[in-house]
Amino acid sequence: MTVTRENTGPDIYQLVTDRIIQAIEAGTPPWQKPWTGGAGFAGFPRRSNGEFYKGINVVILWCIAAENGYRSSYWLTYKQAKAMDAQVRRGEKSAPVVKYGTFEVDDPDSSETVVRPYARGYRVFNADQIDGLPDYFYGADPDEPRDLGTEPNVELDRFFAATGIEIRTTDEPQAFYHLLDDYVHMPPIATFHSANGYYASLAHEMIHATSHKRRLDRDQRFTRKSELAFEELCAEIGSAMLCVSLGLVPDFEQSAAYVESWLRSLKDDKKFIFRAASEAQKATDFLLQAMSDQDVQRAA
After folding, report:
1. Cα angle: 18, vertex 22, 25; to 5 degrees
2. Where is the Polyvalent protein metallopeptidase domain (predicted)?
């Protein structure tokens, strides 16, 4: 039997969870504001080489950026900054991120080599905390979120249609995902104050729709009633990720009951937010990949 061991060094799970709990209790969950105040729009966090962070690292770096008003999307280790002849300013505090990987060990019960996962924490600084980096790390003022008015947007309609998920529109004034019949219901776009609000609400329900057994099967993997808050947390974080990818401002309508349930679950299980962020990332990637696959088919 293979025994899984996780090498976390300091308890990175507890460290990140405590930070998220603090943000939620303050009324500012980081996925509600993946941009910085009036200072601009930081977008998805990036590594020094331009690659995007994923999963829980997106959530925690959004949290740190929002608290400190950082506008740059780039995050570097101290060594990476030094290698570029740049310098972290004295007194600046680093942010924790998580590196996942595997290592091989000899199984004492057999002659086979066993692959085991690990999660290790390390520290990074935002480019706004570092002097001497190339200009592109700081960047120009980012584009403002699109003002779409109240008319449908052809590009966004094409994106959501490419997912293959059925969207039904009636005059019923509710947006929801119907799991049994597998469709998303939306009121007419004309009933929304803005098209951004319509598409942000649609993004939230589309994340829910990825839970179906024909897609990511969250409905079967997370079946306890206590997991209802988990699914809503996935949809909250996932819709923020998807909206940022589409140039939209996320729209949130979570109830106090969900927030209370999230806090209880976070305090009871330090890996709860890690699982939720991971599932949210999978859902976002699933929907974005659908459009990519359609574009490939059209080009073929």
Report:
1. 135
2. 155-278
Nearest to 273 by CA among 288, 262, 286, 289: 262
Q: In which residue are the tokens 């996942």 written?
A: 100
Dihedral pair phi/psi, residue 294, rounded to 5°: -65, -40
Residues 60, 30: contact at Cβ < 8 Å? yes
Question: Could you say which DSSP state residue 155 is in?
Answer: H
Burial code (b: 16+ CB inside 10 Å, e: under 16) for 109-146 equals eeeeebebeebebeebbbbbbbeebeeebeeeebeebb
Q: Which residue has the tokens 């500012």?
A: 28
Please write the tens of the pLDDT for every residue from 236-272: 999 999 998 998 888 776 677 888 899 999 999 999 9
pLDDT digits (tens, 9 = 90+) for 186-207: 999 989 888 999 999 999 999 9
Question: Which of the 8 DSSP states describes residue 53?
Answer: P
Rounded alpha-carbon distances, angstroms, from residue 178 to 102, 113, 185, 209, 211: 39, 46, 8, 8, 11
Residue at 73: amino acid letter:
S
What's the CA gap between 242 and 159, in Å, rounded? 11
DSSP β-bridge partners for residue 126 = 75
- DSSP calls for 174-225: --EEETTTTEEEE--GGGSS-HHHHHHHHHHHHHHHTTSTTTT-HHHHS-SG
Distance of CA 187 to the CA centre of its chain: 26
Instruction: Report CA-CA distances (Å) from 91 to 87, 188, 272.
Output: 12, 52, 32
Contact 194, 150 (CB under 8 A): yes
Distance between CA atoms of residues 218 and 40, nearest Å: 35
| CA distance readout (Å), 257 to 53, 62, 229 | 30, 24, 9
Residues in Cβ contact with 263 at an 8 Å cutoff, skipping those fewer than 6 apart: 21, 24, 25
Number of Cα atoms under 13 Å in the Cβ half of residue 16? 31
